[in-house]
Amino acid sequence: MTRTSIFIFGFMICFGLKAQSIKLVARTDGNTVQLKWFTDKLLADEGVNLYRKSDNGSWNKINSSPIRKGEYTPSATEFQSDPDLKKYMDLLRASKPLESFGLLLATLQAVKSTPFARAAGLYYTEQRQSGIVAYKVALIVRGQESAFAEYNFDELSSENPKLSGIEFEQKFKKVQFKWTVEDSKFYAVNVYRSSSPDSIGILVNKEPVIPSKVKDQAGKSDYPKWFIEDRLVREKSTYYYRLVGIDFFNKEQQLSEPIQIRIKDETIPIPPVLKSKDEKKNGFIVHWEHFEKSDDQTGYEIHLTNRNDTIFYPISTLIASDQDSFLVELKAFGTYSIMVASKDEEGNLGFSNEMVLDYLDKIPPAKPVNVRLETDSTQIKIVWDSNVENDLLGYKIYRGINGDIKSMTLQNAAPFSQNTYVDFLPKNTKNSFSYSVMAVDSSLNESQLSDIASKKLLDVVPPKAPFIKNIEVYEKAVLISWSKNTEIDLLKYEVYRKNLSDSLADFQQLNLSVLDRNANAFIDRNFQRGKEFVYVIYALDSAGNKSLMSNQFKYFLPKEKEGLNVVCRFKDPKIIKATGAIKLSWEIKPYDENVKYMVFRKKQGGSFLPVSGLLEDTRYTDQTAEKEVVYTYEVRCYLADGKMVKSESKEISIRNKEPKV
Fold this sequence. Notes:
The protein is built from five helices and 49 strands. It is mainly beta. The chain has six domains: 3-155, Immunoglobulin-like (Sandwich); 167-262, Immunoglobulins (Immunoglobulin-like, Sandwich); 273-359, Immunoglobulin-like (Sandwich); 372-456, Immunoglobulins (Immunoglobulin-like), CATH 2.60.40.10; 467-557, Immunoglobulins (Immunoglobulin-like), CATH 2.60.40; 567-660, Immunoglobulin-like (Sandwich). The strands form 13 sheets. Strands 43, 44, 46, 47, 48 and 49 form a six-stranded antiparallel β-sheet that branches. Strands 19, 20, 22, 23 and 24 form a five-stranded antiparallel β-sheet that branches. The longest helix is centred in the first third of the chain and has 13 residues, at 100-112. The protein is elongated. The two termini are 118 Å apart.
């Protein structure tokens, strides 16, 4: 549906017309009765019949033949008095039926022009007859009267009717009107405006105002909120409006009483400019400049938001126009926004730029106290007395080493709300950890660091097992040497020895005095020849944790035998190609089946270390030899009398699985 057809549809609704329906209106001027009728198509192709109703209740037909278009031709005088009449007559004579915009224009013209309505077959007039109480019109369709409309004389008033239900609204430099739509009395309304209550003034609307219903989004038809608006008004001026209904014979009815409306001054006064602020103990003094003021300015108002809000509220009475500063007293810490508004006689406000007031708490919380530490093997729990400030946000935890304030680092990214904190650490950590607590309030003020509390983890990690490197026998002593441990909390070593010749013997500690962390050797002066011993070492830390047993180092100390000349010599070594092992053999002269043997080996620049246990055979295969490494071998023969004889040294290396001697 086009916009034009929508308007025509609304106009017909205003007339109360539906498809194949008819509406009858009447007017009396003295003893003359005028009748008009309208259909949804305006023209009745087959005409209409008119009836009178007498006071005895009977209907009498007026016309002898249907009243229809073309039965009347306007006079020359009527054409001369209405310049538009000719073009509308041409519209009537057209062969095409009236539709769309042409239908709208012709319908309006039938209301405005009696000659045109008469020529269109829409008008009838006669002298009012006594005893006649009503008229009726009948629409003829296909030769039959199919639609009827009546008009009773009791609907006619001796006085011209007034509009009812007039309402108006004045804002945004305009005036808007609406009224009660009475389509049985008026087809349109004229609105007049005057600067005096005694004159009708000028017509506001160019064309008569015809309220038409429109459909909303839900498809419901209703009148708009306002029917007409007048924008040709001046602020601070008073006007008098009169509204008058127009009947269907284009006659204005009775004027409404004058409606006095003052046009408000809605022009915003020139605003000031906020320039600076001075923070005070209880708020801020704000300063502004106003280079140009409106003529009707009466002063200033201060508008402020609530704390941490965005809605402005007035907080001052009217401030004199010559004032350029104001003390804003604030009771609660927070962020506020402020504007200064110039105010005119009408109460209009011209707001300045917005200024932010950060009224912040600058008093830090108290230093946390009574910081104490609880530890186990993997964590340190820090506990302190809670602060009592109402605006406390939380705590920051700092950790350092050995009470050094310079080594302190922050442990929590965001303030921690509880008064306990657990720091998880690797269980082998040996440092003494130091902690300090800082309180933070909601304005991010920070307290001083608390007093430092320090503590170590509960140490449950023992040192690594030591490693015995060598045992050397001297005339009256045995020297046991080992590699030093590297733990920072290492305290001491303990050296133990066991007699393997005694099946019931147990390990006995040899050192009666402390072997501190720097020791790497021990001299055993209480030894016995002719027996096999095994030595082990333990490492202990400052927490008393004891390491696992070191490697066991077995040693046989032969007895001394006077005058015995024993010789021990290597035979040619062999390589086992499949494994790369070195097969050693030797001989002892004179041969003694009670002799025991032990094979020693060293790398270039190193010391001899045993590679075999105590042997009874004169053969030994070294499975641990590495390729391209030069080894020196030595066999030590332990005689039955407790003496020991060394073989000559034999240097051997393996190259491409072949020994080089």
